[in-house]
Specification:
The complex is a heterodimer of chains A (256) and B (317). Chain A has 256 residues and is of the alpha/beta class. Helices cover 37% and strands 28% of the residues of chain A. Chain A contains 9 helices and 12 strands. In chain A, the strands form 3 sheets. In chain A, strands 8-9-10-3-11-12 form a 6-stranded mixed β-sheet, sandwiched between helices. Chain A has a 4-stranded antiparallel β-sheet with strand order 2-1-4-5, with helices on one face. Chain A is globular, with a radius of gyration of 18 Å. The mean pLDDT of chain A is 94. Chain B is mostly helical and 317 residues long. Chain B has 11 helices and 2 strands, in the order H-H-H-H-H-E-E-H-H-H-H-H-H. Chain B has a two-stranded antiparallel sheet with strand order 1-2. At the A-B interface, helix 2, strand 8, helix 3 and helix 5 of A face helix 8 and helix 9 of B.
Chain lengths: 256, 317
């Protein structure tokens, strides 16, 4: 288990959608407790890469390890066997995911959204789960909205609940797919505040984002992707202030 | 109408105030003409029925005859059984149709193709005559003669229910497709398998789209059961026919059946109306009600303030 201290190891990951190559030989490693922000122009493959990590997309070439466990396959001797739907679902429990469009379950209240996974998937007792869920809602500042339906909440509130829903599964790793891109500008701050708090608590996080200010402040490392490839990796200072590659320089200049 | 309007008129009103003016309602000539045409047509029809060879007292007598009421009960029971079977099969085959397994998908496609592609009457006859293909049914050691098993009731149930399943499968599939893909991804992200996500997340939200057309199909089914009269299932039309074969009162008994069908369908339509309302509101109900909901719908009042009218839009698609 050479990856034991690494939470995520993506090794030579490639992904095609028909003729279009979305990811080309992507190598990324994330240590436990690290916060990594992935930035880059739209269509650069950042979201696809994130989705490969929790197997919402299958990888064409290469492999992903989460906490030392190979994703999607079982290795016996020299052969690999694809895992069943149920085994992949079990592997997904390692990571929590937050989506750009929140994707809260529309027919459930905020509290029910949080309790659904622990009760239905992990089969934990309802009473215990409810207590934890209420504590999580308080943590994201929305205990008073426990009985509200998603349609009654603002985008920022929905996203904070979506973060709490992912945390309710007690994941080892949190994945954020442009969590503030669908929000009105005045609502971005409250979501970033929750994420900042989460990073301080020591959670391993991979964040695909356009919020360079957040990346600079919170990230341990920044990965710049373009055209399906990792162009440059380094500290926020190295990537955002003193980028070495031309494409990174052009992107930073265009965004700032 | 010169552009030079005085800033205030003699009576002290603003020249832009129109509240004191009288609104003259629009005259709907077309409506009066069509009412006249309909009255004339109805007069002809009523005259025909009054002068025709119809013994109304016989209609009244057979309306509550035991055989007719028994047929009505059978019609309603078959509607319930066949729809239940149809919904169960519909959900099952809709899920199979969307399975990643190509064999399962092919089975579902074949089912829908076959049972939507053949007339219901033909299917009923096939089920009723199943004994000609399979003399016995069951597993070796526990077999039954097909003619004993496939009664008119069973043949009608299988024919109507399985045929209905093919249609309901498409309705359910449409409902499932109406649910945003993000819901499935979010369910998978919290560790649900595809089937758990369908059961817990997708189907409950698809119901909003599925329920109204299924209500429609129930009303169709009430009438469709009459086709089972050809295989001797004693529903209301079959029983009405049995009586008129004996007493020759053809029109009277057909009118009896018509009255009962209209009565039952009307009852169900009212039920469906409330069902649809309940499900259409499913989402809007939980939203904060804006002032737009309190404005009268544009048709009733003369709209003098075009800016404020906009009755559409409050509800989410």
């Amino acid at each position: 288990m050479q990856h034991a201290q690494k939470m995520v190891v993506a090794h030579g990951v490639s992904k095609h959608f028909g003729d279009f190559q979305a990811l080309k030989d992507v190598h990324v490693e994330v240590a436990a407790g690290e916060v990594v922000c992935i930035i880059g122009p739209s269509g650069s493959g950042k979201s696809t890469f994130l989705r490969c990590i929790n197997q919402l997309e299958t990888v064409d070439n290469g492999a992903v390890w989460i906490d030392g466990e190979l994703s999607g396959f079982k290795q016996t001797g020299n052969s690999l066997r694809r895992l069943s739907d149920a085994d992949i679902a079990r592997q997904r429990l390692n990571s929590g995911m937050v989506f750009q469009r929140f994707n809260l379950f529309g027919h459930m209240t905020a509290l029910q959204n949080l309790m659904e996974g622990p009760v239905v998937v992990q089969r934990r007792p309802k009473r215990e789960v409810k207590e934890e869920a209420m504590a999580l809602l308080a943590r994201v500042g929305l205990a008073h909205k426990a009985d509200a339906y998603p349609s009654e909440l603002s985008g920022g509130q929905q996203q904070r609940i979506a973060i709490a829903r992912a945390l309710a599964m007690k994941p080892k790793l949190m994945l954020f797919d442009e969590p503030t891109s669908a929000l009105d500008p005045e609502l971005v701050g409250e979501v970033l505040a929750v994420m900042r708090d989460l990073a301080k608590s020591g959670m391993t996080m991979i964040v695909v984002t356009h919020e360079l200010g957040f990346a600079r402040e919170v990230a341990n490392r920044v990965v710049f992707m373009d055209a399906g490839m990792v162009v440059e990796t380094g500290t926020p200072e190295q990537i955002l202030v003193h980028p070495q590659e031309r494409r990174t320089q052009a992107f930073i200049a265009a965004v700032l | 109408m010169t552009p030079q309007r005085p800033l205030s008129q003699a009576d002290g009103r603003s020249p832009y105030a129109i509240d004191h003016l009288r609104v003259i309602p629009k005259l709907h000539y077309g409506r009066w003409v069509s009412i006249a045409v309909i009255v004339v047509i109805f007069a002809f029809i009523i005259k025909a029925f009054a002068q025709g060879q119809i013994e109304w007292p016989i209609v009244a007598r057979f309306l509550t005859a035991k055989v007719i009421l028994q047929g009505l009960v059978n019609t309603l029971a078959m509607t319930v059984y066949a729809m239940t079977l149809g919904i169960v099969l519909g959900v099952l085959f809709a899920i199979m149709y969307m399975s990643p397994n190509p064999v399962v998908r092919a089975v579902a496609k074949f089912y829908i193709w076959f049972f939507r592609g053949t007339p219901l009457l033909l299917q009923l006859l096939l089920w009723f005559n199943l004994a000609l293909i399979f003399p016995t049914l069951g597993v070796p050691g526990f077999e039954m003669r097909t003619v004993d098993l496939i009664t008119p009731f069973m043949a009608a149930l299988l024919g109507l229910g399985i045929g209905q399943g093919a249609y309901t499968a498409e309705v359910v599939r449409g409902g499932i497709l109406s649910v945003d893909d993000g819901q499935i991804e979010a369910a998978q992200a919290i560790g649900m398998t595809r089937l758990t996500a369908l059961r817990r997340i997708v189907l409950p939200q698809a119901m909003r789209v599925i329920i109204p057309p299924v209500g429609n199909e129930v009303i169709s089914m009430i009438k469709l059961t009459s086709v089972a009269s050809v295989i001797q299932f004693s529903e209301i039309l079959h029983n009405a026919q049995t009586i008129y074969f004996a007493n020759g009162r053809v029109i009277e008994l057909l009118i009896v059946a018509t009255i009962w069908y209209l009565f039952v369908v009307t009852l169900f339509s009212i039920g469906q109306h409330f069902l649809e309302k309940a499900f259409a509101q499913g989402r809007a109900r939980k939203r904060t009600v804006g002032p737009i909901d309190n404005t009268p719908s544009g048709m009733a009042s003369p709209v003098l303030t075009p800016g404020a009218s906009g009755p559409a839009g409050g509800r989410e698609a």
